């Protein structure tokens, strides 16, 4: 066994689940990858973790509720290269024994103390993410001497103090550097040219964020940032002068058009929403800033994490005339990819509606606001129309709070908005239902065929369950035809007669149920998450019965 992957959400019981089942993997001597992300595991990481396979290369436990200390025995796994335990509840200090990794992510825990200088012994380290903890003290110069650091360094949202070490100038292969929201202070060492003279030799830097410190220095007006995608230096609580000349792609930085009467209100609404929310399926905001550009014009901008694969809109509705044959083939989303994206978006909404206090209504869910990273994981963005719901009435459509007027996008906005009702979480569910139908039919809700009383919801509802061939995106039907034998039901007991179409029916039924006209009759998004996860599990089991699946009963 080389891989052990638990990809489905909520397999753990939370705080009472201590991951003791990992002892059963001690005999898996060929295990190379152990991934248990997003499973609601809690308790502590057992000391037996140090006895796992000596062949283990990657250990990934992010997005759980694991607490306690990070076991020192991790260092006994000699071939371990990647250790990901972000978004958990680990506390105490970072073990100084970790010294042979290429990628380390401990983001969003409650780790304290100093950053161990022994990390400087990780001579092959490419990624270091210790952001959003409670780390203190100076930034160890030993770490910043690692020429191997090419992917990125994120030490943001901690309690780090002191100057920027002059060794920072040696990170010439670095992709991004985020030191924002710390207590870094004072004038930078003159040997690196102040802020940010050391960047002139950085050929690969895409993101630099030093905002929300008390740094001093001059930002040159020359074009030394021509290679940078995002530069955010003049943020709050920095004392810097000058304005950098930047060449910024629009997919990363949202610069608001202040000539629009609602732009400033949209900016404030988005900042208010984004400052306290964090979830793996929400677009990560790196910085927000306002100021005066070199021509004396006011600007406001929100800086988002770059997403390699662009928007879902690009993948669903590309035009063959604009794409080469290879690009057209690349843009074909398979059934399981669409299902994964739908689950990601539903999880983001579930978090906004049920885990945020007060709950948040997105109000503008559509393909162009869903961005895909290099792993095709979906991230919901654009909170310019978002609203808060008072905690006392999270399911009410009344008294929602926003600094913008009633809004949304034609075709996606729920019908009750046009009849004077306020935004509600039911409206988000309607948005999601229309999005789901669009993803699997390939038709936009604004398609010219939808007029009079015909809309995407009615179009899908009428086709259920016997006219799926006419309803489904042709790209999915091509996938079905290419792998037709794999999808046939073996026992011939299914009335659908075809696994692929039977699962399409189930997905479309969820989309239709979410987009019914009456808000109170729409599904709860938490139920949608459970249903889609169950569908994915069943689809993988039935559509790929010959694939080797490793599983066991955890409880």
UniProtKB/TrEMBL annotation:
<keyword id="KW-0433">Leucine-rich repeat</keyword>
<dbReference type="InterPro" id="IPR011009">
    <property type="entry name" value="Kinase-like_dom_sf"/>
</dbReference>
<dbReference type="InterPro" id="IPR000719">
    <property type="entry name" value="Prot_kinase_dom"/>
</dbReference>
<dbReference type="InterPro" id="IPR032675">
    <property type="entry name" value="LRR_dom_sf"/>
</dbReference>
<dbReference type="InterPro" id="IPR001611">
    <property type="entry name" value="Leu-rich_rpt"/>
</dbReference>
<dbReference type="Pfam" id="PF07714">
    <property type="entry name" value="PK_Tyr_Ser-Thr"/>
</dbReference>
<keyword id="KW-0812">Transmembrane</keyword>
<dbReference type="Pfam" id="PF00560">
    <property type="entry name" value="LRR_1"/>
</dbReference>
<keyword id="KW-0472">Membrane</keyword>
<protein>
    <recommendedName>
        <fullName>Protein kinase domain-containing protein</fullName>
    </recommendedName>
</protein>
<dbReference type="InterPro" id="IPR051809">
    <property type="entry name" value="Plant_receptor-like_S/T_kinase"/>
</dbReference>
<keyword id="KW-1133">Transmembrane helix</keyword>
<dbReference type="InterPro" id="IPR008271">
    <property type="entry name" value="Ser/Thr_kinase_AS"/>
</dbReference>
<feature type="domain" description="Protein kinase">
    <location>
        <begin position="210"/>
        <end position="540"/>
    </location>
</feature>
<dbReference type="InterPro" id="IPR001245">
    <property type="entry name" value="Ser-Thr/Tyr_kinase_cat_dom"/>
</dbReference>
<keyword id="KW-0677">Repeat</keyword>
């Amino acid at each position: 066994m080389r891989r052990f992957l638990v990809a489905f959400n909520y397999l753990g019981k939370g705080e009472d689940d201590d991951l003791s089942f990992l002892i059963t993997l001690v005999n898996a001597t060929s295990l190379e990858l152990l991934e248990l992300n997003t499973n609601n595991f809690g308790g502590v990481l057992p000391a037996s973790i140090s006895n796992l396979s000596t062949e283990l290369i990657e250990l990934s436990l992010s997005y759980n509720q694991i607490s306690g200390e990070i076991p020192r025995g991790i260092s006994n796994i000699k071939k371990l290269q990647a250790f990901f335990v972000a978004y958990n509840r680990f506390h105490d200090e970072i073990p100084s024994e970790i010294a042979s990794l290429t990628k380390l992510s401990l983001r969003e825990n409650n780790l304290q103390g100093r950053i161990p200088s022994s990390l400087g012994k990780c001579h092959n380290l490419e990624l270091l993410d210790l952001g959003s903890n409670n780390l203190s003290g100076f930034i160890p110069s030993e770490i910043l001497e690692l020429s191997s650091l090419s992917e990125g360094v994120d030490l943001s949202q901690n309690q780090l103090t002191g100057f920027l070490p002059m060794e920072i100038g040696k990170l010439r292969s670095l992709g991004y550097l985020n030191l924002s929201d710390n207590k870094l202070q004072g004038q930078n060492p003159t040997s690196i040219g102040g802020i940010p003279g050391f960047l002139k030799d950085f050929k690969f830097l895409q993101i630099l964020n030093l905002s929300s410190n008390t740094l001093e220095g001059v930002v040159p007006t020359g074009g030394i940032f021509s290679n940078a995608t995002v530069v955010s230096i003049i943020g709050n609580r920095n004392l810097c002068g000058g304005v950098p000349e930047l060449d910024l792609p629009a997919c990363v930085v949202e610069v608001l058009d202040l000539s629009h009467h609602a732009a400033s209100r949209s900016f404030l609404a988005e900042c208010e929403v984004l400052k306290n929310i964090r979830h793996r399926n929400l677009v990560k905001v790196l910085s927000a800033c306002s100021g005066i550009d070199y021509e004396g014009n006011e600007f406001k901008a929100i800086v988002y994490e770059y997403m390699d694969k662009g928007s879902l809109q690009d993948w669903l509705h590309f035009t063959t005339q604009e794409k080469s044959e290879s690009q057209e083939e690349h843009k074909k989303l398979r059934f399981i990819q669409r299902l994964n994206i739908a689950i990601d978006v539903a999880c983001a909404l579930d978090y906004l509606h049920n885990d945020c206090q007060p709950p948040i209504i997105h109000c503008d869910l559509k393909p162009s606001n869903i961005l895909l990273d290099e792993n095709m994981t979906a991230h919901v963005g654009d909170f310019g129309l978002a609203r808060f719901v008072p905690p006392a009435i999270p399911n009410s459509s009344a008294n929602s709070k926003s600094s913008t007027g009633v809004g949304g996008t034609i075709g996606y906005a729920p019908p009750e908005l046009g009849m004077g009702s306020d935004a509600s979480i039911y409206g988000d569910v309607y948005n999601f239902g229309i999005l789901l139908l669009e993803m699997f039919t390939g038709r936009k809700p604004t398609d010219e065929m939808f007029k009079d009383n015909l809309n995407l919801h009615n179009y899908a509802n009428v086709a259920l369950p016997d006219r799926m061939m006419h309803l489904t995106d042709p790209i999915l039907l091509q996938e079905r035809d290419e792998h037709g034998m794999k999808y046939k039901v073996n026992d011939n007991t299914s009335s659908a007669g075809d696994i692929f179409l039977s699962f399409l029916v189930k997905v479309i039924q969820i989309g239709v149920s979410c987009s019914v006209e009456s808000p109170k009759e729409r599904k709860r998004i938490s139920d949608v998450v459970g249903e889609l996860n169950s569908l994915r599990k069943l689809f993988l089991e039935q559509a790929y019965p010959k694939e080797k699946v490793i599983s066991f009963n955890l409880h």
